[in-house]
């Protein structure tokens, strides 16, 4: 099994920055993609950003120019750098790892943007 451990969530003021990290461990193949999803109360979970093993990225329009996803394959860790945070960014953020069609999820970490 694959385990995902997230860190970095918390409270931040509008316009501020926050960095999330997700460390993966367990049986991980060489080729896998990692991503960040978020879910606000009453809304469905949505993709924020994802990155392939080769470094190709897919970023949601709502966060383009503000969020950056990266990964360190040596550490099996993905990062989400969030800048210029807005109230609407408040959500539970989940780390995701996919190997073929098998998906693994982190426990989720709360990000709250409040003045």
Task: Give keywords.
mainly beta; 11 strands; globular; four-stranded antiparallel β-sheet; seven-stranded mixed β-sheet; 115 residues; 0% helix
Write structural notes for this entry.
The chain is mostly beta strands and 115 residues long. The chain has no helices and eleven strands. The chain has strands spanning 2-7, 10-12, 18-26, 33-39, 46-51, 57-59, 67-72, 77-82, 91-99, 102-105, 109-113. Strands 2, 4, 5, 6, 9, 10 and 11 form a seven-stranded mixed beta sheet that branches. It has a four-stranded antiparallel beta sheet with strand order 1-3-8-7, with no helix packed on it. The mean pLDDT is 95.
Structure described in brief:
0% of the residues lie in helices and 56% in strands.
Secondary structure topology:
Layout (H helix, E strand, L loop, with lengths): L1 E6 L2 E3 L5 E9 L6 E7 L6 E6 L5 E3 L7 E6 L4 E6 L8 E9 L2 E4 L3 E5 L2
Parallel strand pairs: 2-11
Antiparallel strand pairs: 1-3, 3-8, 4-5, 4-9, 5-6, 7-8, 9-10, 9-11
